[in-house]
Amino acid sequence: ELIQMLSAKPVVVRHKALLITVNRIYRSNMSNEELYEATRGIWKLGSRRDHAEYVMAVYQGIVREVYRIEKWHPAGTLPYKTRDAEGFKKSGRWEFEGVIATEVRDEYIGNSAGLGEQNPIRYKNI
């Protein structure tokens, strides 16, 4: 992990994307499903979310996965298998439904998108 963080090359995000920092939830041994569920919900977002095509899971500034957004839902709409979703409904937050973006993921995975601010959400090209 440390070697990857220190050797990651900076990447310019050229797609309409949300970069979601998952520092609080991320573990190096997470399954693909756990990372997806940690990334897809529950976020306080405005209407700009509708313009995003992709969501990138970012840990310590490094892109860990890229998902193509299929649809946005109010938080608590979709079932979660790997995290406790109680209390998600009626929170005014959002979650997305998506798939791994095989068409662009190799461009971003393992590269540095830079460290964000305190807010876990960053909008790129939106």
Summarize the structure in words:
By secondary structure, the chain is α+β, with helices and mostly antiparallel strands. Helix content is 15%, strand content 30%. It has helices at residues 2-7, 32-40, 105-108, and strands at residues 17-21, 41-43, 54-59, 62-74, 94-100, 121-124. A six-stranded mixed sheet has the order 2-5-4-3-1-6. The protein is globular, with a radius of gyration of 14 Å. The mean pLDDT is 91.
Secondary structure elements and their pairing?
Blueprint: H1 2-7, E1 17-21, H2 32-40, E2 41-43, E3 54-59, E4 62-74, E5 94-100, H3 105-108, E6 121-124
Parallel strand pairs: 1-3
Antiparallel strand pairs: 1-6, 2-5, 3-4, 4-5
Runs with pLDDT <50, length 5+? none
End-to-end Cα distance:
30 Å
- Return Rg in Å: 14 Å
Number of strands: 6
The oligomerization state is single chain
Outline the biggest β-sheet.
Answer: 6 strands, mixed
